[in-house]
Amino acid sequence: MFVVVGGGVTGLFSALYLRAEGADVLVFDPAPGAWSRAAAGVLEPTKFEINRINVRGYPIRYLKMWLKGKARVTRLDWRWILAYLKVYGRDYSPEVWSYVKELAFFSLSTYRRMAEAKNDFEYREEPLYEIVEDVEEEAKALKADPLSPRFEIGEVGGKAAIVYLDAAVISTDLAAERLYREAEEAGVKFIKRRVVSVSENGVLAEGGHTVKADGVIVAGGWWARELGVPIAPMKGYGFRVKTAARLGRTIADFVSGVFLVPYRDWVKITGRFDFDPTDDYTPSSAVLDAARAWIRDFSVVDMAVGYRPCSPDGLPVIEKRGYVVIATGGCRLGWTLGPGIAKAAVDLALGRTPSTPLTTMRFKE
Ligand SMILES: Cc1cc2nc3c(=O)[nH]c(=O)nc-3n(C[C@H](O)[C@H](O)[C@H](O)COP(=O)(O)OP(=O)(O)OC[C@H]3O[C@@H](n4cnc5c(N)ncnc54)[C@H](O)[C@@H]3O)c2cc1C
Q1: pLDDT averaged over every residue in the chain
Q2: What single string gives the DSSP state of each residue in 245-312?
Q3: Which of 97, 184, 268, 311 is the most buried (most CB within 10 A)?
């Protein structure tokens, strides 16, 4: 029997892949899908730039956001900061980047296949329009992106924009529901409790529930921190809103700090990138304020809070430690890479591959 800790996008795909191999699977999560569905749902398979928080100059950018009240830090995590200093300015080998690209393409083909079977999660392939401070500078950064994105310079809402051509979108609200339903139908068991520890003695959940397993996949997002993995909880908010306005395009407005994705019955508005594990959601209203530059009138249907699990270099962590596999670190690209991360984790758990290029060794070297 396999235990999966966390039923977000990574955990749900892990559970489905394990089940497809005939394994008994038990997922622990107090609210499966609740964090992952905060996401905008933009898939960016050939663009890693958004996750490269360790490039030179990024701390200054973040500091400027903080000074303008567009980001906040509520807790200093020294383990994460020390690991950040180790990888600051570091680039990786072409092998690492082609591995990441494989994760992204595996993921994209998974969503495509799911949509071909039944497109009940609004999968569509279409360009993403990005508003940035300096289009020329951004174009330069994109040319340096290790995943070689295709883009052109265009216009949206009367503003110059980077048009990223390899994008797709999915409704994460609908996709999370579908994955949960499919997992249940496939026979995956869910226990809606938080896990307290994972050790040689088994998986201990709140309320004293201990389970012995043949293998464990830890896909609890930033909870992997409890196992010594440097992962930050980069909190953000996702709103579904009703509006009469016709947006027509998927927009990533980095100047105002907001993404807007039109779906059939709502527009998804997301934003904030706060180093903040607390239950205080005060900055969420700033996301709606920023969205008003694009759509003036709307009514909120609901809000989801998510914690992007970000390692210090923005790359995932997929690592085997004895009978435990850690699968996290999607950061801002967790849906873009989720199925790929899950597949790699399951291959490790089943002993099909010995290791990955994305272990925590890189924070120690
Ligand atoms: C506002 C916002 C917008 C985003 N937009 C995009 C986007 O457009 N495109 C994209 O690709 N990505 C996007 N992301 C990132 C993406 O959502 C995350 O990277 C992704 O959700 C990570 O998935 P995960 O399953 O690894 O972890 P999570 O989504 O963090 O899920 C972890 C799960 O584990 C559970 N859990 C935690 N601790 C425990 C425990 N102790 N015991 C049991 N269960 C536990 C939680 O309840 C949760 O369900 C966005 C994120 C946010 C917040």
Answers
A1: 97
A2: ----SEEEETTTTEEEEE-SS-EEEEEEEEE--SS--TTHHHHHHHHTTT-S--EEEEEEEEEEEE-T
A3: 311
For 296, phi then psi, to 5°, come to -75, -45
- Return the structure tokens found at 261: 């994705």
- CA–CA dist 240, 260 (Å, integer): 10
Number of other CB atoms surrounding residue 285 within 10 Å: 10
Residue of 47, 228, 218 lying closest to 145 (CA atoms): 47
- Sheet of 317-321, strand order: 189-191, 25-28, 2-5, 215-218, 324-328, 317-321
- For ligand 1, say whether the CB of 308 is within 6 Å of any of its atoms: yes
Q: Is 231 in the pocket of ligand 1 (CB under 6 A)?
A: no
Task: Give 135's Cβ-side CA count (13 Å radius).
Answer: 15
Q: Is the dihedral of CA 183, 189, 193, 196 positive or negative?
A: negative
| Domain locations in the chain as residue ranges | 2-363
Q: What is the pLDDT of residue 88?
A: 98
Distances (CA, A) of 349 to 296, 327, 345: 49, 11, 6
From 18-27, 109-118, 202-211, 225-234, the region with the lowest mean pLDDT: 202-211
Dist. CA 207 → ligand 1 center (Å):
24
Domain at 2-363: CATH code: 3.50.50.60
What separation in Å is there between the alpha carbon of 221 and the centre of ligand 1? Answer: 6
Ligand 1 contact via 51 beta carbon (within 6 Å): no
